[in-house]
User: Fold these one by one.
Assistant:
Number 1:
Amino acid sequence: MSHVAIETASQPECWRRAAELADARANALPAAGERIAVVGCGTSLYMAQAYAALRENSGQGESDAFAASEFPLARRYDRVVALTRSGTTTEVLDLLARLRGTTRTVAVIADPDTPVRAAADELVVLDFADEQSVVQTRFATTALTLLRAHLGLHTDAVVRDALTALAEPLPEGLPDCTQFSFLGRGWTVGLANEAALKMKEASLSWTESYPAMEYRHGPISIATAGTATWMFGTAPDGLAEQVRATGARWVESPLDPLADLVRVQRLAVACAAARNLDPDRPRHLTRSVVLADD
């Protein structure tokens, strides 16, 4: 069994531990009313998008999300939250160094014995969710669970849904699809982006992701027999019927959207197996992007 499959299966327990840790580390995380930015790269960026949307839409303060390399330094924030599994990503470390002494920073990490220890003002360590696979699964979802719990938006039902997502069979025929479109609304746009990335990384699948209401504005033209459109959360009225009319597969679930992401992780592994690929070692990728000094 691949590392990513094992790590995917471990997520319910990781989420339980993260929810408990949220209370213990509450002082390190953004307080209600603070104006914050959340930064990351790759998967961590998409978790940042989901968290920022959740936080602002729940009335707890203005919340932006940026790729670390695209952070607008002219803006002022009360706190910047950096999501980084490895603690070694060049763009994150460079940004934290530039913010030192001007903006309070906290890094949510898996490995504290890395350069991020000296770069951030505070650390929240999720070492129990660290991973061997290059492809991120449990660290990303555990970090988001920590942040959801801090917002008061996590319940035991989410963990139960994750167990269901691991136990129930995937819809038949999905690994045979030639293209996947992932859709979200609000905070689940970030999950849709991450689902598309996961399928690309692990199985070299052709994937795209969009806000659900934008899908009608052009992207639906690629939907046809042999493609799949996957909705995270509640779909806009009429969209499912419109997609089915193209001949494409429509996929949705009553599970919590974060638990539904677990199903996509499983699908990515299944597609990799069908294509004789190693999902732990995606081509051209490493665990962390560390750039050489000029």
Note: The first helix runs from residue 3 to 9.
Number 2:
Amino acid sequence: MTKRKIIKTNRGDLDYSRKTLIMGILNLTPDSFSDGGKYNDLDSALKRAEEMETAGADIIDIGAESSRPYSERVSAAEEKKRLIPVLKEILKVTTVPISIDSYKSSVMRAALEAGASIVNDISGLRFDEKMAATAAEFEAPVIIMHIQGRPENMQDNPSYQNLIFEVKKYLWDGIKIAKEAGVKDEDIIIDPGIGFGKKQVHNLQILNRLESFKELNYPILIGTSRKSLIKFVVNKNEVNERLFGTAATVSTSILKGANIVRVHDVAEIKKVAVMTDAVKWEGNHGR
């Protein structure tokens, strides 16, 4: 019998023992690479959040500052202005845990005080030294992501001597930062950061060798949805034409060890995940 693997949140347990968790993306930004400006008013954001939960999202990840390559930073005050009023209303119409995509502790504190569940930090707790302690104070699960550089310069010329080793070390160091600040072991999630300071060949290598990240012994999140990696391989310039390429990366990631997939197209990718989970888990019964 498979041992239950649980991520505890203030909105209930997330069981990833034999199921891939779907994290739906909701950008409250005017400039995100895929859907900038589409959901940055209250009505459209609420409608989208409800749609994603109905479609099968286990988590909704809300971001109020774009982290696309070469994007401009916004102040914590502006980020909170975009995020907190919408977050409060989304919490009224949804039941799933809400993740906040931010690397600023003051933004995260305001979000957690409002009722958010999960800390999703693209910097792996590096850009703001108070992030880990803030998460620990609220006993919130933390997603520690790898990035080389910062969003405004990360794609200038990313380079590695030993890609997998360096990404794993960055994640392991982030885990140490979290635990030293009081984050519980069972509240840690890792993300190798597809597209964040990586050439496309790096992204493909990480997906191909994703199993090696299981050695860290934490749930793995992968975010490939609509990213330029898909354009690079299947030559689709329009982000909305990258669904099938995204589906392929999601299925590959699940088979190689991903526990959470962060996606825009929740309804479609939910079906991909359910089918891939069936192959991954039910296929083991004959052994």
Note: Confidence is low (pLDDT under 50) at residues 31-37.
